[in-house]
Amino acid sequence: MNPGGEYEDTLLVARREEVAPDVVALTLRHPAGRDLPAWEPGAHLDLLLDTGPTRQYSLCGDPADRASWRIAVLRAPAGRGGSAHVHDTLTEGSTVRVRGPRNHFALRPAARYLFIAGGIGITPLLPMTAAAEAAGADWRLLYGGRTRASMAFADELADRHGDKVRLVPQDEEGLLDLAPYLTAPHLTAPYLTAPHLTAPAGPGTLVYCCGPEPLLQAAEEACRDWPEGSLRTERFQPRTDGADTESESRAFELVLTRSGLTLTVEPERSVLRTVEAAGVPVLYSCEEGTCGTCETDVLEGEVDHHDSVLTDEERASGETMMICVSRCSGPRLVLDL
Ligand code: FES
C-alpha cells in the first residue's frame, strides 16, 4: 500500500504477446507468486514507468484470476512516450511498478447491454462482455477499427460469442455509424433491429463505450435522448468539448479541514498544485482529469468540473472532484484533506 491507501508494487512481466500489429498484451504477476488485489470489469491500472509519464491501462483479463493481471497496450506514435516505453523495454522477465487498480467505469447490473469499442478501447470491454455473458444478460458488442487485422482480440471475440459481436473494420465498411444502433429506446421498444445486428437497445439497456474521442462524442450525441445514466464512457484523453474556463481566471479560498489550512488558489494554478505546495500529501497521476487518482471529497462549495471521469450525476451531486483540473465556481471551496 502507498500513503494514499492504494496497492502499489513491482510486478513481473510473466508473458508478452503481440495481439495485433502495434498492440502488445502483458501478463503481470507478483514476483513471489502472491495474490494480486481483486478488481472488477472496467478497472484500470497505473504503470509507473522508469522513463516517461505514468500511464493508465485497462485490465482486460479474468477478474477471477487473482494470480495475474493482463493489460494490452497500443503503441501510440503521437503519445507522450508511455506506450513506446512499454513496447520497447518491457519484455518477459522484466519488472514494472504498478498502482491500483482503480475503477471509474464499473459495470452496473442490467438486463441488456450495448458495448461499443473503438480500437484499443476494446480492452475494458473484454471483461465486461464476459461478465455480461456469465450473468445471463442480453448483450451485443459493436467494435470498430482501422482494419480487421488491427483490431486486437477481434477473432477471439467473434469465435467465442458469434453474432453478439459486430466487427466494423473501417477499410471494409467505413466508420462505425452509431445512429442505427442508438435510436432513443422509447422509440424502439423492446428491440431495435439494425443491419447485421439485433442490438439490445430497449428500455433498461446500458451502453458502455470506450475508444477515440470522436466515437465517444458520437455516442454521447446519439444517446442524448436516452434516460439519464444510460451511457457510460471511459476516456484516456481529456475531453475536447470546450469546457468553461471562466473559473480559471479567478482566485478562490480553499479550506482543507483535516489539515486545518486555509489557502488561496490563484488563477492558472490548480487546486492540486496549491495543496501540494502547502505540504499536504496528495496522490495524483495524469494531471489532466482522466485517471481519477486525485478524486477528493468536497465538503462545501460549488465545483466547476473539468475532468473526464465523473458522470453527469456524479458531477451534479458535487460530492467529489478531480483536484488536478477542477476548480470552484464560487468564492470558497472546502475539501476533506
Ligand atoms: S491526477 Fe488524474 S484525474 Fe487528477
Average pLDDT over all residues: 88
CATH class term of the largest domain: Alpha Beta
Estimated radius of gyration: 21 Å
User: With helices defined by DSSP (H or I, 4 residues minimum), what is the helix count?
Assistant: 7
Question: Could you give the order of strands across the largest sheet?
Answer: 4-3-6-1-2-5
- Shape, per Cα inertia axes: globular
Structural class: alpha/beta
Bound molecules: FE2/S2 (inorganic) cluster
**Main sheet makeup:** 6 strands, antiparallel
How many domains make up the coordinates? 3
Distance between the termini: 19 Å
Strand content: 25-35%
Q: Might you state the CATH topology name of the largest domain? A: Rossmann fold
> What is the number of strand segments?
20
Q: Mind telling me which CATH architecture of the largest domain this is?
A: 3-Layer(aba) Sandwich
- Measured as a percent range, the helix fraction is 10-25%
